Automatic annotation (TrEMBL):
Binds 1 zinc ion per subunit. NCBIfam families: accD. Component of the acetyl coenzyme A carboxylase (ACC) complex. Biotin carboxylase (BC) catalyzes the carboxylation of biotin on its carrier protein (BCCP) and then the CO(2) group is transferred by the transcarboxylase to acetyl-CoA to form malonyl-CoA. It is an enzyme of class 2 (transferase). Its cofactor is Zn(2+). PROSITE patterns: COA_CT_NTER. A zinc finger (C4-type) spans 37-59. Acetyl-CoA carboxylase is a heterohexamer composed of biotin carboxyl carrier protein (AccB), biotin carboxylase (AccC) and two subunits each of ACCase subunit alpha (AccA) and ACCase subunit beta (AccD). It comes from Longicatena caecimuris. Belongs to the AccD/PCCB family. This is Acetyl-coenzyme A carboxylase carboxyl transferase subunit beta. Residues 33-291 form the CoA carboxyltransferase N-terminal domain. Zn(2+) binds at C37, C40, C56, C59.
Length: 291
């Protein structure tokens, strides 16, 4: 609350200084005071954006969230218990500059890798949860991301828990070569066992969900949800257009386009995500036996 009051005072001082006739020097605006929308480019007071769940009030664009911001928005307060937090890659960092970039991102984001996994409660219902974070290597899937997601799936299967994965990724991590592609098969195999156990898996796609992630666990959900206008696809639009030699629709690979083609089940705005997930979990909490 104290921080909000400070932010309001900074905004007021800024507006007063703009109106002052004797102001001759350019004003240095603190980086955390305003944020520009990536879609409409409008400047939004950070305080307003935060209270609007990081959705642009001008155009409705759903701006990217960190994994921990997502957790705070959807789970019951204080219920999240993280798993495999400090798991890191000990070998296979042979790509030039890869190890240094990993270390820089770990310091910048406070994450060890591009996914956070654990258990939590939504509406009092316990579930396993994996949330990818595009701030870390664009959410790309390497060995650790694949291993953490696989362990989360296997834990859900063992404990007979529903599973929710929030996907956002640029695809497989090229710095790890073929070992990153192996994660597609590994996560998919774990999901097959989860499905065989008769357990629920909800895949929630956010911007962007592409490459090897979209070609594996992201599109294997029993129920697949997506945020509005998020990018969903495998190859890029320009690559596809040049391959088929056709002009593609303007909304090609958006959530709305993919929904129309039947590949996802529903588009859910961020403000409704928690309630929708709770409703789905409750519907599947008690399964009817037909034996």
């Amino acid at each position: 609350m104290e921080q909000l009051f400070k932010t309001r005072k900074m905004r007021l001082d800024l507006f007063k200084s703009r109106r002052s006739s004797d102001q001759k020097q350019p004003i240095d605006v603190p980086e955390n005071l305003f944020r520009s929308c990536s879609e409409c480019k409008e400047s939004i007071p950070f305080e307003d954006l935060m209270h609007n769940l990081y959705v642009c009030p001008h155009c409705g664009a759903h701006l990217k969230l960190t994994a921990h911001e997502r957790i705070r928005q959807i789970v019951d307060e204080g219920s999240f218990v993280e798993m495999d937090k400090r798991m890191t890659l000990l070998e296979g960092r042979t790509f030039p500059g890869y190890e240094e970039k990993l270390e820089r991102l770990q310091k910048k984001t406070g994450l060890y890798e591009a996914v956070v996994t654990g258990t939590a409660k939504l509406g009092g219902i316990k579930c396993a949860l994996a949330i990818m974070d595009s701030n870390f290597f664009m959410g790309s899937m390497g060995q650790i991301v694949g291993e953490k997601i696989t362990r989360c799936i296997e834990y859900a299967t063992k404990k007979k828990l529903p599973l929710i994965i929030f996907c956002t990724s640029g695809g497989a991590r090229m710095q790890e070569g073929i070992l990153s592609l192996v994660q597609m098969a590994k996560t998919s195999a774990a999901l097959a066992k989860h499905h065989e156990a008769g357990l629920l898996y909800i895949s929630y796609l956010t911007h962007p969900t592409t490459g090897g992630v979209s070609a594996s666990f992201a599109m294997l959900g029993d129920i697949i949800l997506a945020e509005p206008k998020c990018l969903i696809g495998f190859a890029g639009k320009r690559v596809i257009a040049s391959t088929v030699n056709e002009e593609l629709p303007a909304d090609f690979q958006t959530a709305e386009f993919v929904l129309e083609k039947g590949f996802i089940d529903r588009i859910v705005e961020r403000k409704d995500s928690r309630n929708v997930l709770i409703q789905l979990l409750r519907l599947h909490e008690r399964r009817v036996s037909w034996d």
